[in-house]
Amino acid sequence: MNLTTFSPAHLPDLVLFLNRVLAGHRHWAPIGEADFRERVLEQPAFDRAGLILAWEGDKLVGGVHALKPPPASPIYEPYEPRHAIAWLAVDPACRGQGIGSALLGAAQDYLYYCPVYFAGHSTPLYGVIEKLWVPWYGSTEHMAVSAVSDKAQVEWLTRRGYQVVDPGDVSMQASLHSPERPQDPGLAQRGLQVVGISERSPWRGDEPFYRLRGWNNNGGKQYHGLVVAEGERAVGEVVWYPLPDQETAALAWFGIEQSYRGLRFGSYLLDRARVEMAGRGYLYVEVHVHTRRHPEAFAMFRHRGFQAIDYWVNLVKT
pLDDT tens for residues 15-70? Predict the structure, then answer.
């Protein structure tokens, strides 16, 4: 076995390898070389020294991608800078030969500093940080390790010093069968209106978050949303985009300013969005939420028929 850092000549082998070993993960869709180039190689957080590949002769049998804190850039400002491992994979036919351990050791040597987060929330390149597109696999926001289907990987990492932290990360799903248009709870009386946005008509006004301006036209990738606007200022927003099955919409962002909470504006915005999604042909909507850090959102989703469909494990080595 031989370990090398990535070079552009490895791209065809890497894409074939990923399509083979990651098939079956939640939301995984086959990728092409252009996909990988756009989503990973051309992004400011990419450093090829952290993308480490394992070879047996001329056959790619494993890989790992370690990421140091990204360079200063507006797209990364909202996220805590971290040392992270986005993914580690070994060809099933080659497991049990120490390849995974060698890759993990090489990734940790490259990162050098702890703590190291494995597939964490703010990991660049493979989630929705750079653009609003489906993560490679996992939740609707980021690559993630499933407590349901990835138990072997969790146990393997635990034996190597990684600990499960911050429990409560879940994906939830609800049906969109003919929801009724909700009754306006009084937005107009407070000088508010609802504005539709998309990659073709992005939000141009002010907002308390970087997300809407960051997504902008999203490089032409599809998304839709609703903004609760006070003049030219966004005080609440909900944004969604299609998952690979094209039947499910993923909620990418949902929030409303603190001063407008408790007035049913948030629940109205979510219900209005569900009507819009159903009208566009979606059958289901999925959302990622943290049950402990955002208990109000979790309770609202449950009240509106969302059910937990997967539980995510956050792992850290300190």
Answer: 999 999 999 899 999 999 999 999 999 999 999 999 999 999 999 999 999 999 99
Confidence at residue 210, expressed as pLDDT on a 0 to 100 scale = 72
Q: SS3 of 212, please?
A: helix
CA terminus-to-terminus distance, the chain: 29
**87, 90, 96, 99 alpha-carbon torsion, rounded to 10°:** -80
pLDDT digits (tens, 9 = 90+) for 88-122: 999 999 999 999 999 999 999 999 988 999 998 88
* Residue ranges of the chain that CATH labels 3.40.630.30: 2-168, 177-282
Write the DSSP assignment of 236-295 as a string of letters: EEEEEEE-TTSSEEEEEEEEE-GGGTTTTHHHHHHHHHHHHHHHTT-SEEEEEEETTT-H
Q: Does 3.40.630.30 match the CATH number of domain 2-168?
A: yes
> Among 26, 23, 19, which residue's Cα sits nearest to residue 60?
19
pLDDT digits (tens, 9 = 90+) for 186-198: 999 999 999 999 9
Going from the C-alpha of 198 to that of each of 2, 195, 212, 318, the distances in angstroms are 46, 10, 10, 41
User: In whole angstroms, what is the distance from residue 131 CA to residue 223 CA?
Assistant: 11
CATH architecture of 177-282: 3-Layer(aba) Sandwich (3.40)
Residue 34 to residue 64: CA distance in whole angstroms: 20
210: its two tokens:
């970087």
* Measured distance CA(24)–CA(92) in Å, rounded: 13
Per-residue b/e over 156-174, b at no fewer than 16 CB within 10 Å? bbeeeebeeeeeebbbbbb
